[in-house]
Specification:
The complex is a heterodimer of chains A (112) and B (114).
Chain A (H helix, E strand, L loop, with lengths): L3 E2 L5 E4 L4 E7 L7 E6 L6 E6 L3 E5 L2 E6 L4 E6 L8 E10 L2 E6 L3 E6 L1
Parallel strand pairs in A: 2-11
Antiparallel strand pairs in A: 1-3, 3-8, 4-5, 4-9, 6-7, 7-8, 9-10, 9-11
Chain B lengths: L4 E3 L2 E4 L5 E6 L6 E8 L3 E9 L2 E4 L8 E7 L2 E6 L8 E8 L8 E2 L3 E5 L1
Classes of the chains: A mainly beta (112), B mainly beta (114).
Chain lengths: 112, 114
């Protein structure tokens, strides 16, 4: 089992729809969770971080964390073609490890 | 702030040659990370430093890879000798300590070993 798992996609949604991206992790000691967006040929950039159970909203983005089920998700409302990218889920190593473990990413395609 | 700076942005070399990648973290960041990204393996952590000291190098693939951080504003990742399977994008990232865990990535170095 991979430490951080994501569906590779592509996930295709029409413009204006809600895109839902999911991630599961194996280390129950993990404490910090991140979503990074990576455009083709570019470096990852942070979209959202979440540390406690529940929802965290930032503009069109909502991160959801459920530690009991060991999953974290990202919702993108009113999806735009400019949201088309690969979304990487990242989890800290737990037990104070500062290094992040990344999932393989989900490619999102927003159709105009 | 200029962000994380990496050089060179692109590198093409022949098998057996030495390759040196460079990174300047964001000023004031105490943690520096080196990652490698390939289609097959995704984004992998190679090594990370805290206050210039290597903390975890378990991701370094083999002895051909070495990394140094002689001061707070500079780090190198060296591959000697390089092999075609080392072809990848190498990212450097930095973050604050102790509460801020967000990592900020540099633009990456695209390495092609022929």
């Amino acid at each position: 089992q991979k430490e951080v798992e994501q569906n590779s996609g592509p996930l295709s949604v029409p413009e204006g729809a809600i895109a839902s991206l999911n991630c599961t992790y194996s280390d129950r000691g993990s404490q910090s969770f991140f979503w990074y967006r990576q455009y083709s040929g570019k470096s990852p950039e942070l979209i959202m971080s979440i540390y406690s159970n529940g929802d965290k909203e930032d503009g069109r983005f909502t991160a959801q964390l459920n530690k009991a089920s060991q999953y974290v998700s990202l919702l993108i409302r009113d999806s735009q073609p400019s949201d088309s990218a690969t979304y990487l889920c990242a989890v800290n190593g737990g037990t104070g490890r500062r290094a992040l473990t990344f999932g393989s990413g989900t490619r999102l395609q927003v159709q105009p | 702030d200029a962000g994380v700076i990496q050089s060179p942005r692109h590198e093409v070399t022949e098998m057996g040659q030495e390759v040196t990648l460079r990174c300047k973290p964001i000023s004031g960041h105490d943690y520096l990370f080196w990652y490698r990204q390939t289609m097959m393996r995704g984004l992998e952590l190679l090594i990370y430093f805290n206050n210039n000291v290597p903390i975890d190098d378990s991701g370094m693939p083999e002895d051909r890879f070495s990394a140094k951080m002689p001061n707070a504003s500079f780090s190198t990742l060296k591959i000697q000798p390089s092999e075609p399977r080392d072809s990848a994008v190498y990212f450097c990232a930095s973050s604050l300590s102790p509460l801020e865990e967000t990592q900020y990535f540099g633009p990456g170095t695209r390495l092609l070993v022929l």
